[in-house]
């Protein structure tokens, strides 16, 4: 009897196996589950009779199955003695759980592979923490990049603004000196209109850079959006309707009404440009889950954005609507305005799935 591989049905072994705190599962060389302990079944929510006799791939997420089957084949064929892998398991309620599985062979007294033993560790919390850390790092890198761009942009905008003021002043003098019927009046008016557009562009750059500081005032976001509705409906975009989802009561935001109007107009205009086939743009406002804040969101069902575009969407002059009238300053201005009032703006978007921009602003305190 010495050196004999214990039979998995031995009562002593079964008792120790069943009561172990480590999640364990024993399969034959075809991957059919022979035994699972209480810890393993508790991890995924199965009863013993739900697992016994099933192949392990039936509780493996399809996206991970090919890789796991390759590793299992290498294991039972002797190409490896064990492996550890992070994979998704299918729980009894249909949900998915991330587990770290370490799998090794069990040999008999003659040295032949007889069973496969797998231990599983719940890594849902670990993966969530890693994902949050990665997200925080991306947001920090984006904030630093935008801050650096803002410093350069603000400096250039000031110099550019001074030049535009000089040009605008000369154009006005020329217009005053010319007779109203003079043939050059058309060209001079063109210069004045161009300088006005340049001035608006400069204001957008200054807003992005945070160099136009406006003292916050109490703003009723929901009322402001309702008052803007007629103007929002007149923005360009065929077959598009505006839907409002406004909380009946919410605290006043610490901002500036005119600036927030610009935020709403830019976000809705951006949403309408993204919806080539029409649809609904939803503007929502409510008290934020974070105490002391309110949120304003604009959602569309348009083109959506990939990860690379989302990383750059608030940069000055970056636009996905170049051929549809976009200048690349709308979202940059929104970013600067929101940041100037101590708020944040985020975007959730996937290609073909639309986009949702969410602005969070602090509540006004006297």
Which helices and strands occur, and which strands form pairs?
Blueprint: H1 11-19, E1 23-27, E2 33-36, H2 38-44, H3 48-51, H4 62-76, E3 82-90, E4 96-107, E5 113-122, H5 124-177, H6 185-209, E6 217-219, H7 221-233, E7 240-246, E8 253-255, H8 257-274, E9 279-287, E10 293-300, H9 307-312, H10 330-340, E11 344-349, E12 355-362
Parallel strand pairs: 7-9
Antiparallel strand pairs: 1-2, 1-5, 3-4, 4-5, 6-8, 9-10, 10-12, 11-12
Helix pairs in contact: 5-6, 6-10, 7-8, 8-10
CATH class bucket of the largest domain? Alpha Beta
Q: Which fold does the CATH topology of the largest domain refer to?
A: Heat Shock Protein 90
SSE string, helices as H and strands as E: HEEHHHEEEHHEHEEHEEHHEE
Mean pLDDT, to the nearest integer, reads 83
- How much strand content do the residues show? 15-25%
Q: In the CATH classification, which architecture of the largest domain applies?
A: 2-Layer Sandwich
* Major sheet: 5 strands, antiparallel
Helix content: 40-55%
Distance from N terminus to C terminus (CA atoms, Å) equals: 85 Å
Secondary-structure-derived class:
alpha+beta
Shape: elongated
Number of helices: 10
Radius of gyration (CA) equals 31 Å
